[in-house]
UniProtKB/TrEMBL annotation:
It comes from Pseudomonas monsensis. Residues 43-367 form the Aminotransferase class V domain. Signal peptide: none annotated. PANTHER family: BLR1280 PROTEIN (PTHR43092:SF6), L-CYSTEINE DESULFHYDRASE (PTHR43092). The lineage of its organism: Bacteria, Pseudomonadati, Pseudomonadota, Gammaproteobacteria, Pseudomonadales. This is Aminotransferase class V-fold PLP-dependent enzyme.
Length: 393
């Protein structure tokens, strides 16, 4: 058994990790996909940085942070994800980066086609539809079959690419926020390349819980969060543009604070959350110290499998996410098949069993309840969920 798989089952080890976090009394949080917690040491570092910036004000920021420290932190981010520093720029979140990439992609002509599917984030769908209204392109919308498989996902895209030869750009989500389905990005990107289609990748839920080689994925444009599974303060994300493709994204609304050759010109220029950015070196150090995405992902997958394996075949419960290890992560969704109102069932999980979850709508397969364990979740919490599902089904 690999070390990460063995350690994923070690409740004593993960309790020592959980002890680094302060958690308010209340419901068991199974909605850790919204944003992650900062460790106690990161909070302390963040507070020190707030005090430093408040007292030194623009003297430090102008003389040191903007000139040197910001670039050092960006280089550390690039090292963490295995790319060149010139290919990343900080944003406030993945959505901001994705919107900028979509609206500033300059290779579209009227009559071209762009593609979205039912599982994309709503803001990404909206941005792609905006292209249709303002760039004169046709927006192609598809829905994936359910239950999904590796082959069915590829076949859907293969058929779509053939059916719509004017496709030039598509959105793709690495980990879908509705069901936790993990898209086979590298295989889809290879297909898209054969048809001359560029991908803008939504990696919001992927970074930190899935091990991947960003350059090997075969996508030129992507947006990520740092506040979900990396452990950073809120207001931190970044965009990625492959260096050889920088010219295909225009500076954001004529941004002039950086030269055209600088990726930072592709983001809105504004005063960032400097104390949060200054906290990132410690965040990266703690992420690496626990084993990074391989260790975190193994733990989250283990917790996921505890409840999924117990309820997968129970009448009245439909697990929406497949069990193919290529297609799932810690986030997984379910539906009470004998109950029409999933929101009412999520309320019962909270009111009757003190389990906090969230309902996700918008997928062609219907509304579902998303279960997202976190790094402070225990095996006992998963057993509690299993008992609740068995009673409510």
């Amino acid at each position: 058994m690999p070390d990460n798989t063995r350690r994923a089952r070690d409740e004593a080890f993960w309790q020592t990790f959980a002890d680094r976090y302060d958690v308010q009394p209340g419901p068991v949080n199974l909605e850790n996909g919204y944003f992650g917690r900062m460790s106690r040491t990161v909070i302390e570092e963040y507070q020190r940085n707030i005090e430093l910036i408040n007292t030194s004000n623009s003297v430090y920021v102008r003389q040191q942070f903007e000139q040197r420290d910001h670039l050092d932190i960006r280089a550390q981010l690039a090292e963490l994800i295995g790319v060149r520093a010139q290919s990343v720029a900080f944003t406030r979140n993945a959505t901001e980066g994705l919107q900028s990439l979509i609206r500033n992609y300059n290779r579209l002509q009227p009559g071209d086609q762009v593609l979205i599917c039912d599982l994309e984030y709503d803001t990404v769908k909206g941005a792609m539809r905006w292209l249709g209204e303002h760039r004169g392109v046709d927006v192609i919308e598809i829905a994936h079959s359910h239950p999904a498989s590796f082959d069915s996902l590829l076949e859907t895209y293969r058929e779509t690419f053939v059916r719509h030869p004017k496709l030039k750009l598509m959105a793709l989500t690495h980990v879908t926020h509705r069901t936790g389905l993990v898209m086979p990005v590298q295989a889809i990107a290879a297909l898209a390349k054969e048809h001359g289609i560029d991908i803008i990748l939504d990696g919001a839920h992927a970074l930190g819980q899935i091990e991947f080689d960003l350059e090997a994925l075969g996508v030129a444009f992507a947006g990520y969060n740092l506040h979900k599974w990396i452990g950073a303060p809120l207001t931190l994300g970044f965009m990625y543009i492959a260096p050889q493709r920088l010219a295909d994204i225009d500076p954001d609304m004529g941004e002039m604070h950086y030269p055209v050759s600088d990726i930072r010109a592709r983001t809105p220029y504004s005063t960032p959350n400097i104390p949060a950015l200054m906290s990132l070196p410690l965040v990266f150090e703690e992420h690496r110290s626990i084993g990074g995405a391989p260790a975190k992902g193994a733990r989250l997958n283990y917790l996921r499998n505890l409840w999924v394996s117990a309820v997968r075949h129970l009448p009245g419960i439909e697990v929406m996410t497949p069990d193919d290890p290529q297609l799932y992560c810690g986030i997984t969704a379910l539906r009470f098949s004998r109950h029409a109102d999933q929101k009412a069932m999520a309320d019962r999980l909270l009111n009757d069993f003190n389990l906090f979850t969230v309902v996700r709508n918008g997928a062609a397969c219907g509304p579902c309840i998303r279960i997202t364990p976190g790094l402070t979740t225990t095996a006992g919490d998963m057993q509690r969920l299993t008992r609740a599902l068995n009673e409510l089904r």
